[in-house]
TrEMBL record:
All copies of domain Aldehyde dehydrogenase, residue ranges: 2-366
Catalytic residues in the record: 142
Transmembrane segments: none
Organism: Phytophthora citrophthora
Family the entry assigns: Belongs to the aldehyde dehydrogenase family.
Keyword Oxidoreductase on entry: yes
Matches recorded under InterPro entries: Ald_DH/histidinol_DH, Ald_DH_C, Ald_DH_CS_GLU, Ald_DH_N, Aldehyde_DH_dom
Protein name: Betaine aldehyde dehydrogenase 2
Molecular function, one GO term: oxidoreductase activity, acting on the aldehyde or oxo group of donors, NAD or NADP as acceptor
Key words, A-Z: Oxidoreductase
Annotated Pfam families: Aldedh
Length: 386
């Protein structure tokens, strides 16, 4: 409800502008809905991400066609039913389920669609953006990530261990801002990793309907096998699996043990590419300059976290990190008013906040002349064009 309430408030309070205009004229600018927009949602966080897109699109007056992931369509279909029961007019919020290369492609290529808001992998995002561009439709792309957690040596190690476990393993690591790279000052590296391994081994895997469960499954068998293949390639390249690194042997289903990997090099696949699972690569740095260099050594730039008690350092490092979202001594926190999106291969545009609200509109500028003098361009010999 937070997202609906926030964007409903924006719709009520949003104002146009009156920019300065030379001469006897008044210029007023207001925003209008784009028309019909296409929203493509992923299988992870299917309700949250759907609402993040739907709320601003509806708030400014658009009609919506939403295509949920074929791996998690039921949540969005139920959301649509609830919206209609709440009184949303027929045809305003429409859902089309199906495969991405069929239903998704048809949606993206349809000429009536004026904007595509897509959350998913970077490779697919490039194809979606290119197809939308064929109709000159605008896009918001929230794509992959490889979030660094940069930990300086002035922290409470136990506090960071708890924070890192949350950053790395919530939702079985299947979030775009998962803390996938743990970059720790060399003075506390071994202590922190040892304590993190102990913490991770205590995480209880199981049925999400069981109140004692702390971590659930991977979305599918193919995705689990992909995660494990990346871990195995890291091991073959010389990395050390400190814990996890295997399918949970005592559980039926797509369970993968939370995994901590050390002895990695910055150019390894496990460090550079998105795993999208419960796997974190941990390595160390000597000083602030190296910390920033390692954190930015990635094709992605969605989220990043800084752990330090030095507020000057926190702001200094935050200013240098190449990411769209940065947390200080925390991770994953989200709010409907706070812009959410990335740079580099993590996408373009923003969800949440005024940025999202405005992205579902186009601007109309109206210039009104109020001068009393008569004007005829073609009889005034003193006037020249240019």
């Amino acid at each position: 409800m937070e997202w609906f309430e926030y964007f409903a408030a924006l719709a009520r309070t949003s104002e146009g502008t009156v920019p300065p205009f030379s001469g006897s004229y008044v210029n007023y600018v207001h925003r209008l809905p784009l028309g019909t927009v296409g929203l493509i949602t992923p299988w992870n966080h299917p309700l949250l991400i759907a609402v993040k897109k739907l709320a601003p699109a509806l708030a400014v007056g658009n009609s919506v066609v939403m295509k949920p992931s074929e791996l998690a369509p039921l949540t969005v279909l139920q959301l649509a039913e609830l919206c209609h029961e709440a009184g949303l007019p027929s045809g305003v919020f429409n859902c089309v389920s199906g495969l991405g290369n069929v239903a998704g492609q048809a949606l993206v290529e349809h000429p009536v669609i004026k904007k595509i808001d897509f959350t998913g992998g970077t490779t697919t995002g490039r194809r979606v953006a290119a197809a939308a561009g064929g109709n000159l439709a605008s896009t918001t792309m929230e794509l992959g990530g490889k979030a660094p957690i940069v930990v300086f040596d002035d922290v409470d190690v136990d506090e960071v261990v708890n924070g890192a476990a949350f950053a790395c393993f919530i939702a079985s690591g299947q979030t775009c801002v998962t803390g996938a790279r743990l970059i720790v000052h060399e003075r506390i590296f071994e202590e922190l990793v040892d304590k993190l391994v102990t913490k991770v081994r205590s995480i209880r895997l199981g049925d999400p309907l069981n109140d004692r469960t702390q971590m659930g499954t991977i979305i599918s068998e193919p995705h689990l096998l992909r995660i494990h293949a990346m871990v195995e390639r890291a091991k073959q390249a010389g990395a050390t699996i400190r814990c996890g690194g295997r399918r949970a042997p005592d559980l039926k289903g797509y369970f993968y043990e939370p995994t901590v990997i050390t002895n990695v090099a910055p150019d390894m696949e496990i460090v550079q590419q998105e795993v999208f699972g419960p796997v974190v690569a941990a390595y160390s740095f000597k000083d602030e300059v190296e910390a920033v260099q390692l954190a930015n050594d990635s094709p992605f730039g969605l989220g990043a976290a800084i752990w330090t008690t030095n507020i000057k350092r926190a702001h200094r490092v935050a200013d240098k990190l190449e990411a769209g979202i940065i947390w200080l001594n925390d991770h994953h926190r989200n709010d409907p008013s706070s812009p959410w999106g990335g740079v580099k291969d993590s996408g373009m545009g923003r969800e949440n906040g005024l940025e999202a609200y405005r992205s579902y509109t186009h601007v109309k500028s109206v210039v009104v002349g109020f001068g009393s003098e008569k004007f005829d361009w073609f009889v005034d010999d003193t006037v020249r064009y240019g």
